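2 proteins. here.
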Amino acid sequence: MAHVLVAKYADHLPLYRQSAIYAREGVDLNRSTLADWVGQAAWLLEPLVEAIRRHVFAAHKIHGDDTPVPVLAPGNGRTKTGRAWVYVRDDSPFHSTAPPAAAFFYSPDRKAERPREHLKIFTGFLQADAYAGFEELYNPQRTNPGPITEVACWAHCRRKIFDAWEATASPVAKEALDRIAQIYAVEADARGKPVHDRLAIRVAAKPLLAGLFALKRRVALSRFFDDGRLEADNNIAENGLRGIAISGSFCPCWAGGRSPLSLASVFRTPASLREQRRTRQRPDHSSRHRAGACHYRSGLDDRSRGVRSNGSGLPARVACCTA
């Protein structure tokens, strides 16, 4: 069973492929049998999953993101769409010794009540995209357990500006792209440094923000300049979701919203998060840098590299590897 789980969640090998591999070796393990094993493992490992979630939500800062996933709908002959959510604690970019971890959740929809339930014990900084469902959580009057402070994502902001530049060739949008590229160049120097060093390095980028046109989330986009624990973007969470993204797989869900997707919390902690950091730090020397872009393999702007994006930073045709 351990091998099946590791192959599924760490090596991203869907159960139907595992079944075929076993069949070649003369071992008859039907996909439904493997699915039953995964379901039983999800139940048995619930205490560990809950412990990981407590560790994630005890952080001062987390990254959050979600993506649509196709869900099997037995008897209907088709699939429906659910949501996979991830909240990542990863303080290693500023030399914290706290182990990185990721908490995964499944929900049948994207209602605001979903993140409200997920984050009911969290207080601190939440770095995320501009999803309206998070807005209620940023209410300064939130007292139980305390306020959540928004930290916006420059990668998402840049995508909107890139769309405008691509559609209109606007010189204003081009200037904004150039300035954001310079902000990321400074951030590359700050990555991996202690908190005080990160703040000192980022001072050079502050004047670049002042020259940008009006930004709806200017305050939230500026917070990383004044707190060395924060990041410029939410790529940590986006990369956490990429780890379970393989085309053609589906996410089963049982009564009460339980899903084996929660097991990803066990197998995405912490070695795979360290690997995604190494991937994130390798620059992409794309020819589109000439458009004022500053791309990293973490998906700063997939479309500018010829990959159609679905708005979450994931390629549009990618599905969730949970079956």
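next one coming up
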Amino acid sequence: MYKDFFWLKHLPFKITPDLTFFYKNASRKDIANAVINSLSSGEGIIKVVGEVGSGKTTLLRLISQKIPKNIIKIFVISPNLSPIGFLKAICFELNISLEQNVQKLEVIKLLRIYLIEKYKAGQGVVLLVDESQSMTIDTLEEIRLLGNLETQKEKLLQIVLFGQPELDVTLNDNKLKPLKNRIASSFIVPPLDDKEVMSYLNSRMKIAGYLGDDLFSLKVSKQIRKITSGLPRNINLLADKLLMAAFSDDSYKIKTKHFKIIGEAIAWYKRKNILVVFGLFFIIVVAFFMLAYKMPMVSSVEKVAEVARPIAKNKKETVLITPALINQAEKKEVLKQLSNWAEYWSKRKDRKFFALYSENYATEKGYSRIDWQASKQLSLQKNSAINLELTEISITQLEQGLIETRFLQNYKSNLISFDSVYKKIVWKKEKSGWKIIQENTN
């Protein structure tokens, strides 16, 4: 949404690990080099700990790239396995063939034979374990036993454990004291401080192709650090939303007001989801009560108390009904919702406006609901004295419970003197009434 606005070649704040955007400051590069030095020194077991979203997986990938080519590196990313399952996972990564019902001692024997053969060929093996805080005590004890595989001079298998702080808590168990004592080097991936957050954000923008002045000031970065606890993954998520807010605000600077806009959008969406949950709970309770007491389920069609008022205020309204048969009550309901849609936008009643959209609404170009909603709210804030008129309305029954409306939208505001476009809105009948599931400009 904002890529072209900021002249970017790439999206700067994706949360998937990408070494192109690796931030070498805040001890990241130092930790990577230290781990490589520890492996080069022949250390057996190394530990790297950091909070969720601190960048451990990105660091793991960088370390993997730095490991010399004569070293075989294997990854285990599902460490919550039994000891025998963990050993089999290692053998699978090393292409060691195992029989179906092989016993643990046989697996260790085959693994040792493989490691000795590689050692004689001048090759070492490094095992990189991600999310190691999920490992059981028994499987962690297996790590210690694997660390015992060695020649008289060197380790046959070197192990690097990456995990969250819970790993340290587990290692404090008396049963794991022998393993803890065998850990040769330990590193902590720290969160970013205020200045590092500013440097991190503007660095990623430049790598993504941005050529302008720094978007993120120290003042803004301090607020981002406070909200995200200085964790890169959280920073990326928030920065992405802030760029979208700046784009919608036609601003080439991230400002404090953009935090408020994003906060309002997220808070509204959460409140709506809570209401949906309570509504579903109420329906379930009522249904259970009726079934328990064998009460008949009554279905009725309520009369429409008020005929949908004309949507166009200053122009003669033309409503074209297609040959497809449309239930007259449903027709009035949809026209009423369309009238509300125009009224809520004109009067800037954002909560009521967004309530007209289904939870399954297909936003433009696949944007997230929060991004789309925040963009709409920014547009409402920028525009005042909105005058929205709908004419040339046509209605088509697509299928049962699905109705399409087409119309000419005439739009005026303090910023737009006059704009006229044809639009299409598809409505779906849900339990709470007719909701918008699709909206397009023709």
